[in-house]
Design goal:
CATH topology of chain A: Rossmann fold
CATH architecture of chain A: 3-Layer(aba) Sandwich
Radius of gyration of chain B: 20 Å
Shape of chain A: globular
CATH superfamily of chain A: P-loop containing nucleotide triphosphate hydrolases
CATH architecture of chain B: Orthogonal Bundle
Structural class of chain B: mainly alpha
CATH topology of chain B: ABC transporter involved in vitamin B12 uptake, BtuC
Helix content of chain A: 25-40%
Structural class of chain A: alpha/beta
Largest interface: A-C, 27 and 29 residues
CATH class of chain B: Mainly Alpha
Largest sheet of chain B: 2 strands, antiparallel
Shape of chain B: globular
Number of domains of chain B: 1
Helix content of chain B: over 70%
Order of helices and strands of chain A: EEEHEEHEHHHHEHEHEEH
Number of domains of chain A: 1
Distance between the termini of chain A: 43 Å
Distance between the termini of chain B: 48 Å
Strand order of the largest sheet of chain A: 6-7-8-3-9-10
Order of helices and strands of chain B: HHHHHEEHHHHHHHH
Oligomer: heterotrimer
Number of helices of chain A: 9
Strand content of chain B: under 5%
Number of strands of chain A: 10
Largest sheet of chain A: 6 strands, mixed
Chain lengths: ~240, ~300, ~260
């Protein structure tokens, strides 16, 4: 990809978004952006609205106020299936793989799109199985029989089948063993090298600082801090304030 | 000594005849119930208009048969027309109600059923119509002359359900339907156009009900209330089989139909109907998630 | 995070009494397993009368499960729960409520079609009911007085006749606390009381909790660290179902293991 051709406007932009669940005011005016091909981290404690921010970008919830923009176009209010086809992949917090579908069928849900030739579909599948050999072994097993780590890999592979321009990762390392955590780290790198942007929601601070270019920190429904990852350190006061005790 | 007496007292011929009857009725019921359970499983809609889609299918069959003379054409056209009608109904009345209190969809489908019943009454009048079966012919089963057509109904219903099952398992849109049934939100996040999957599923369910109507038509008269008899049974079957479970509905359909058929050996058919209600109550008391589905942990 | 704010609350040794009588609630080896998952592992926990204790911990630490055990919603696999010295392990929620433990929930649990006063009055009645079916409810003046006093305590007296559905989110959460308060508990369990609130609403609720905590013992599960540090006299940190650390806010802030667990270093 020619770096000079990188568009100036961000790939995803969230502008002053207010999202409610019923009466509960979760996002109190969140603004952030992710540029093409960037890895951006979103840190914060439980309940601050990180997942809700991702769901708002994905169109699974709609904001009462504010805008969501994708490649310069306003997409606020569009349903999730349209956003998925535009190029947003979503890997939710509890993985949410289709438990009664096989691994293969889980992947197919992202493959059966307009204009996908059989060759192209096979290429994508081969790529997924190359990144995640364990999925190839279990391709005909029901999703619900996979271990937690395997389900996480399936959830990521499934999103990759959409050939997304950006993947929204919601706490991918939660509940995983350290060995799997480094595997997730590698996958983020691989996706980044392939030019896929990533918005990484995490509570694991070292991982996020290593993997991301920029980092946002949220508290109580707003972004409170924004810095380059290289400028931040686990021991910084800012980290302790918003993520520690 | 005693065993021979008991064996001799058992009316084997009647049991075999009723087994055949039970399976025939069971297969039609399975076809109706499959549509109902598909619709409930994918979008949590209790479709009270399902019996009327069955009835409309039968009437359209009557009309097409009268104009073209072909039973098979009647079956195909009735299925397609009612499927389209089902899609139209879902888009206009059920889509706007998505996410609301389930009572609203129950009322909406109930309203549709009333409209369709009275439309049929107005259009076709109160006198029952007849669909001529595509071929006559009997074989002798003990002391009865059993129509081949009845066996055809069972075979065709099984074929349609089988085709549907294959579609669900291997078809591209079949995977969409299964994914949407399991996790509507995640299916949407994978680019599956969930509102259209709902419409498609409703259309398929409606089409299956219509096909049952045409198949069943030759056995009884086609009139505007024929849906009512079947819809109650279909609901019982769906609950007993496990709501949303296709296999469960089929198993429950055959199970209940066989029980009723056997009961009518000793009781009058009107009394035999009690069997299905007894099974329903027992299911709700002891295994409310369904007799033919594994108990959730 | 200014540690000196925590000193504004009375320390437990001032209000607490010695020995068993001073311990309102105590758990011994509290364990609960769901299939292969051990959600709580041999938790030994105790709170002195009058204390405000916060329970914190990262995702999946077992905080809600702990509350569910204390309030009888879940039955522990092993271990004991002692309330005022009495073994209440395995009692159903209604019995536990009668003995004096009240709880507010994460997801608001009020009756939307009743007025604010009616919501609280129903809770008061559960404490002071009589079997007479003939007296008009308006005749139970003492119940209404009590309900109004509770509304006063949670700052909703002015909205007594407003339908609960019409209250703002913050007001509804405070009503939830009021309903718990109306059952005259000795131990009040608050489950994420400031969830979904704006900063000013959070501040109001914190004042509210400080006021009412004077006359009872309070347990709070919270994610908002500012609330925790300012309200709590002592903090218990749970991690993977075990007690990781316990101490004053200052002690917890300086505990390196706690920080490790939160930042995943």
């Amino acid at each position: 990809m020619n770096p000079d051709a990188t568009p100036m406007e961000p790939l995803v932009a969230v502008e002053d978004v207010h999202t409610y669940y019923g009466k509960s005011h979760i996002l109190h005016g969140v603004s952030l952006h992710v540029d093409h091909g960037e890895v951006v981290g979103l840190l914060g404690r439980n309940g601050v609205g990180k997942s809700t921010t991702l769901k708002t970008i994905m169109g699974l919830v709609h904001p009462n106020r504010g805008q969501v923009l994708f490649a310069g176009k306003t997409v606020t209010g569009l349903p999730a299936h349209k956003l998925a086809r535009l190029g947003i992949g979503y890997v939710p917090e509890d993985r949410r793989i289709f438990r009664l579908l096989t691994v293969m069928e889980n992947l197919r849900t992202g493959l059966d799109r307009h204009g996908m030739s059989e060759t192209r579909k096979q290429e994508l599948l081969d790529k997924a199985f190359a990144y995640f050999p364990v999925l190839a072994e279990r391709r005909n097993q029901a999703g619900g029989t996979l271990s937690g780590g395997e389900q996480q890999m399936l959830a990521i592979a499934r999103a990759m089948m959409l050939e997304p321009k950006i993947i929204l990762l919601d706490e991918p390392t939660e509940g995983l063993m350290p060995r799997m955590v480094s595997q997730i780290r590698e996958i983020i790198d691989v996706l980044h090298r392939a030019g896929v942007a990533i918005l990484l929601v995490e509570q694991n601070v070292p991982l996020t600082l290593q993997a991301s270019g920029r980092v946002y920190i949220m508290e109580k429904g707003v972004v409170r801090h924004h810095a380059a990852a290289s400028d931040l350190n686990v021991d910084d006061a800012v980290i302790h304030q918003y993520l520690g005790v | 000594m005693g065993i021979e007496h008991i064996l001799a007292a058992i009316p084997w011929d009647k049991i075999i005849i009723q087994t055949v009857n039970g399976i025939v009725t069971g297969m039609i019921l399975a076809l109706i119930a499959s549509g109902l359970t598909l619709i409930f499983g994918i979008m949590d809609v209790v479709n009270f208009a399902h019996g009327e889609l069955f009835m409309l299918g039968a009437y359209i069959g009557v009309v097409v048969l009268a104009t073209s003379g072909s039973f098979w054409l009647a079956l195909i056209i009735a299925t397609l027309v009612v499927a389209l009608l089902g899609a139209a109904l879902q888009i206009t009345t059920l889509r706007p109600l998505l996410g609301r209190d389930p009572l609203t969809t129950i009322l909406a489908t109930f309203g549709i059923s009333l409209v369709l019943q009275n439309y049929a009454l107005w259009q076709f009048g109160p006198v029952a119509r007849k669909i001529q079966e595509p071929f006559t012919g009997y074989f002798t089963l003990f002391y009865l002359e059993y129509p081949w057509y009845r066996l055809l109904i069972a075979a065709l219903s099984a074929a349609i359900i089988g085709a549907f099952w294959l579609f669900l398992k291997y078809g591209k849109y079949g995977v969409w339907i299964r994914a949407t049934t399991q996790d509507r939100v995640m299916a949407e996040a994978m680019g599956i156009p969930v509102p259209w999957v709902h419409t498609g599923a409703f259309a398929i369910g409606a089409g299956m009900a219509a096909a049952s109507g045409v198949l069943f038509g030759p056995l009884v008269g086609v009139n505007h209330t024929m849906g009512l008899d079947w819809i109650l049974k279909a609901f019982i079957v769906v609950v007993v089989g496990g709501m949303g479970s296709l296999g469960g509905s089929i198993a429950a359909s055959i199970f209940i139909s066989l029980l009723e058929a056997y009961a009518s050996i000793w009781a009058s058919p009107a009394q035999a109907v009690i069997v299905s209600f007894v099974v329903l109550i027992l299911t709700l008391l002891f295994r409310p998630t369904g007799l033919f589905v594994p108990t959730p942990k | 995070m200014p540690a000196d704010l925590a000193l504004q609350a009375p320390s437990p040794t001032e209000t607490g009494q010695g020995g068993e009588a001073g311990r309102v609630i105590r758990t011994e080896g509290l364990t609960i397993r769901f299939g292969g998952l051990t959600a709580l592992n041999s938790v030994n926990f105790e709170v002195r009368r009058g204390e405000i204790r916060a329970i914190i911990g990262p995702n999946g630490a077992g905080k809600s499960t702990f509350f569910n055990c204390l309030t009888g919603v879940l039955r522990p696999s092993s271990g004991r729960i002692l309330f005022n010295g009495e073994d209440i392990t395995g009692l159903p929620p209604n019995r536990i409520s009668q003995r004096g433990i009240a709880r507010s929930y994460q997801i608001t649990n009020i009756l939307p079609n009743a007025t604010t006063l009616e919501n609280v009055r129903i809770a008061v009645q559960s404490r002071r009911h009589s079997w007479s079916m003939l007296r008009h409810h308006g005749a139970y003046l003492d119940i209404i007085d009590k309900a109004e006093a509770v509304l006063e305590a949670v700052g909703l007296r002015a909205k007594a006749d407003e339908l609960a559905a019409n209250l703002s989110h913050g007001e509804q959460r405070n009503l939830e606390i009021g309903i718990a308060l109306a059952t005259e508990p000795q131990l009040l369990c608050l489950d994420e009381p400031t969830a979904g609130m704006s900063t000013p609403e959070t501040h109001d609720t914190m004042q509210l909790v400080r006021r009412i905590a004077k006359d009872l013992t309070t347990l709070i599960v919270e994610h908002d660290m500012q609330v925790v540090m300012e309200l709590a006299q002592r903090i218990t940190v749970l991690h993977y179902g075990e007690v990781l650390a316990e101490g004053t806010p200052a002690e917890i802030q300086q505990n390196p293991r706690v920080l490790e667990v939160y930042l995943k270093t």
